Amino acid sequence: MTVAVIGGGVVGMSTAWSLRRRGEDVTVIERGSIGRSASGVNAGWITPSLSTPLASPGVVGLGLKHAFDPNGALSIRPRLDTDWIRWLWKFARASRPSAYESGVRALLQLNTHTLDLFDEMRDDGVDFEMHSAGLLALAQYADGLEWFTQLFDHLLPMGFPGSVEYLSGDEARRRDTAVGPGVQVAAHTSIDRHVNPESLLQGLHKRVSEMGVTVLQDTAVQAVTPVGARWSIRMPDHSLDVDDVVVTLGAATNALLTSLGFRLPIIGAKGYSIDVRGAGSSPRHALYLMEPKLGLSPYHDAVRIAGAFELPARDERVPERRIRLLLNQVHPYLAGWSPDADVDIRSGRAGLRPATPDSLPFIGPAPGHRGLYIAAGHGMLGVTLAPATAEGIAEMVTTRHIPESMLPFQFAGRI
């Protein structure tokens, strides 16, 4: 069969890899260049430990509390927009304890083979930067790990395969020399990893091209139209007819689906990041700064600082104020390493995470449109969930069967 994957982010490129491994004739169509979307801006965390719904008890009140705080890590801003009001109402419903627990179980099941799939990519020749030292959560106050403790108290009885080790500040400093004297308590998860997301996308691009996948960059899809039992994809210079279409456009998914007569409750949530070099010994672990909710990812040539979750967002403008805040907020947590003072603030970037009300992605056949599949709405878990999503989509396309692990991510009752 011929399959078009529309969207060349981490979910789209992973899907192309999974489909091609099953023998499908695959074309990826990316409106920009591979690695320039939100997939290339994020912290690159592979964190089964943090794969829980943002929609959780108490989060709506917290988000509204910081609605007008320009420095808030999570902000939910009032807006007189019908789609946004409907989304927020569904988000509130999904934050109930019973819905939250169902979401945790669904994501736990989806993540069963996540780490194995990343290892399979490497074994298959996908060359990318990956680190397996785990995640080190740092808190300045004794109660700063309360959320983290509650999270693991919830995960472990469900069969979560990871573990957590709680550390004093001194123990954390012995574990990672970059940790500063202001850190009182810490937690280390051994199961988690992080990648350089640009290198992952470049590695996937190179590998799928070697496998025979056609990758079209800087190519906008103008329309997707059913033609008999097939699909016609119209682009500026030509059209492409295929048997199946997989839409992996993230926050831009609805721009394409509207022409087919339906919309998904996916909105953009803006996050920011900046890559910096610094003086001293770079962190050995991915660091999660608990109070400001920032992530630090050490790579071979830089450290990425990433954070914020602004709802709703429709543009990728980067206020310099936001990037300065990221840099200022990391200092109390670090000692052995600090960002260079002359870092170029203008190098900061923003991306739109595709957020759904229940914090679960849509992964499966679009209702009423045979041969059309959607994999979108992964929120902050795009890198973590990409390989498992890709495997699920590839199985559905090739067998027309929905695996049991994918049932919670279907459309019924969610749109």
From TrEMBL:
<protein>
    <submittedName>
        <fullName>D-amino acid dehydrogenase small chain subunit</fullName>
        <ecNumber>1.4.3.19</ecNumber>
    </submittedName>
</protein>
<dbReference type="GO" id="GO:0043799">
    <property type="term" value="F:glycine oxidase activity"/>
</dbReference>
<dbReference type="GO" id="GO:0005737">
    <property type="term" value="C:cytoplasm"/>
</dbReference>
<dbReference type="InterPro" id="IPR006076">
    <property type="entry name" value="FAD-dep_OxRdtase"/>
</dbReference>
<feature type="domain" description="FAD dependent oxidoreductase">
    <location>
        <begin position="3"/>
        <end position="396"/>
    </location>
</feature>
<dbReference type="InterPro" id="IPR036188">
    <property type="entry name" value="FAD/NAD-bd_sf"/>
</dbReference>
<dbReference type="Pfam" id="PF01266">
    <property type="entry name" value="DAO"/>
</dbReference>
<keyword id="KW-0560">Oxidoreductase</keyword>
